[in-house]
Amino acid sequence: MDSGSQPAARAENRGARRDPAGGGLLSPSPTAPAASRGTVIGNGLTWLAAWSLRVALIAVGLVIVGYVIGMLWVVVWPVVLAILLATVLRPPAALLIRWRVPAAAASAIVLLVGIAAVTGLFVSIAPSIAGQTQQITSGVIAALGQIQQWVTGPPLNLGDGQIGDIVNQVTQQLQQSATAIAGGVLTGVSTLASGLISLVLALVLTFFFVKDGPRFLPWLTSITGRSAGGHIAEVLRRMWDVLGGFIRVQALVSLIDAVFIGIGLVLLGIPLALPLAVLTFVGGFIPIVGAVVAGSLAVLIALVTQGFGTAVAVAVLVVAVQQIEGNVLQPFLQGQSLKLHGAVVLLAVTAGGSLAGIAGAFLAVPVAAVVAVLLRYLGEQIDLRDRRFSGVDDVAAGTPVTAVDGAAPASAATGTDTKTGTGTDTATGDDSETVGGDAVPAPPDSARQDGG
Fold this sequence. Notes:
By secondary structure, the chain is mostly helical. It is built from 13 helices and 4 strands. The protein has helices spanning 6-14, 37-71, 73-98, 103-152, 160-176, 178-212, 216-224, 226-268, 273-283, 289-306, 308-338, 342-390, 394-397, and strands at residues 418-419, 425-426, 432-435, 438-441. It has a 4-stranded mixed β-sheet with strand order 2-1-3-4. Helix 3 runs parallel beside helix 6, helix 7 (216-224) packs antiparallel against helix 8 (226-268) and helix 9 packs antiparallel against helix 10 (289-306).
């Protein structure tokens, strides 16, 4: 072959494939014609339009769901509160059940003990509040006198007549708003009555959730079918574990904050030290915002009763305890259970508070954690399905799909087929795939394709 034909031969060989049996060269594989610029842009716009429509439909659906939840909030709130309480009360009830106590009796015992503990706590702080209210009132009056002396001196130099005019204007505005204030009082009474009804309903639902909770997932699986039921049961199991971990860890962290801040307030001689410690504990369930509010109230009481120096000492105490909590306890105890960034927590609390007030701020972090669990599970299933569609074995690819959030993967209790990492079917009864030692539910039958 002459030298002129060698480049052409090499170019032809580059497009050819070698026969694995005989070692010869097969015919070159055909190459797809290059798409025009207009075709590429048109395909991109089509893809963008399709996904924009999907996102718009999802947004509309979320708005409708939010509207329905708002309309049914008087029912939704007790249910959510009962679920949160059940995550705390179910472990001790399960322990009593293992000790041969009937489920109904065990649920009633833990619920009554919880109610008694909360009631006893509030009864114990009532005398402290009643006995030290006069001291705080005197401190507030003295603080107002100091403020009056400050505004009459430099740099404001307001005269007594000007201060009297300001007081008269405020008094007139309050008198003009008397009707609105009375209406607000009636609204507050109505809200209090509604809150008591919701609390009673939540306690009743808590009893049933604690007693019959383990029966829910098998019932749900029997209703929805083995394929969809396996996925729903696994997601709900992970959500339950995350909620329980959040409540227990947050209670522990809040208790530590309340104990150390309460001891510091007692040593500094701050009135209402025990109620402020209880408020710190309760505020701990509203991350970031609750601690700031409770700490600010403690500093304010110290300022009006003990003076500026003691208020600074209280502020240093509160900031020090909260810094230790935020930088040591929270990452160590809660980082693995929630896996939420601090910015996500802050935005969730802000959004929840703006939408539903204190209840929304309280529920914001658990809801965000539940949504994160759902998104992680969907991501796992998408990755698993992509590997199946591409024909890549999960174990060979070295990227096993494992359960997250410390939740147990779907097991053979749900009753479908399992696949091992080597592709061998076993009749263990769980429609899941064991990859790298961890069982992951397979996608629903409707999501499978040929060859997957």
